[in-house]
Known about the structure:
By secondary structure, the chain is an all-beta fold. It has no helices and eleven strands. The strands form two sheets. Strands 2, 4, 5, 6, 9, 10 and 11 form a seven-stranded mixed β-sheet that branches. The relative contact order is 0.32. The mean pLDDT is 96.
Amino acid sequence: QVQLVESGGGLVQAGGSLRLSCAASGRAFSRDTMGWFRRAPGKEREFVASISWSGGNINYADSVKRRFTISRDNAKNAVYLQMNSLKPEDTAVYYCAARRLAVSSYDYWGQGTQVTVSS
């Protein structure tokens, strides 16, 4: 059974930091592009960051550039999101996702982890 399990969410004050982790199991993810998405209350799900299988291609949403850092450890089938200088508008459920090589959309998703940033 393919699973993506996020952890590391929580409540933090504005300006603080959190590190999200995503543990993948059930198949090899080392060739997948991994991404983080988020859904804020009353809003559509939005892209946050992605990292290619080699780590050589990394993309960020403009709203998180220079504050968030995505990384991965293929040996551990894990992907991380370091979030610094958090703002109340970063409050959302954060989802980990995987996109298989040569597939155009993300086809594996985690259940999400809540991040709440208080002002």
